[in-house]
Amino acid sequence: MNGTEGSPLHGLSNAALVGLARALEAAQLAAPITSLSIAPWVPAGPLREATADEFQRLLAAGMQPSHLAYALRLLCTERVATERAQGRVELVWTGPEPDGAANRDTRVVVDDLFRAARRRVVVSTFVVYQGRDLFRTLAQRMDEVPDLRASIFVNVPRREGDPRSEAEILREFADNFRGSEWSGKRLPEVYYDPRALDVTPGPRACLHAKCVVVDDERAFITSANFTEAAQVRNVEVGLLVADAFLARALTRQFDDLVADGSFRGVPGLGAGG
Question: What is the pTM of this model?
Answer without folding.
Answer: 0.70
